[in-house]
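Amino acid chain:
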Amino acid sequence: MPAATTIDSGLPETRCQPPAPTVLMDDQALADFLGAAVGQYRRITADTPLPCFALLLGTVEATTYHVRRVAFGDNARASDPAARSEFRETIVPVFGPAYENEHRGWWMDSRDLLRASREADALGMDLLGSIHMHPDWHRLGPPAERGHMLSERPTPMDRHLFARTGWPLNVICYLERRGDAFYHALAAWEPPRQHESDGAECREVALRVRTGSPKEA
């Protein structure tokens, strides 16, 4: 039997990258989240950086994620023993004492997570990931933190949580207030690769929001 041979192309070795996905988001799903986010934003103070978080339900076809609705739940960050342990033993030592504030961070109640999963199954959908708000903390936060500007890009803490949950889709909604009006920006992110550390950058994926039908004049 002839020995196996190897053909050298002369090109540097590269790893095959999977095709980049695209996210399609229904406008009503985004409107539902923004309504909750604005309501939560209005309650934020320098001492209470209240979060807004929801799960994304939808369908997957090839490399397209279609977000059709959002599912909300209670924040168990201050009451769930696993959450308290995670923040005390991992998050605060790594990301700083600001995360000792029990209003900072989100940990969805396991009962609500199960309810959302069952809701997705009943609708023939999948649990795709999550969406959460980043407020303009440089305007709302205490003086010591006003140099820390958030955006629709993930923070180191976000990257840690994206890697921990392993959900394929993570959307960040940056929300800011200018006078009496609110403005937002969106970006979608994959979690860091399994062979990478929590501190690795996340890959941004294309995000498209469905345009509602224009009303007749």
Summary: The longest strand covers residues 126-135. Residues 27-41 form the longest helix (15 residues). The helical segments are 27-41, 81-95, 110-122, 137-140, 156-165.
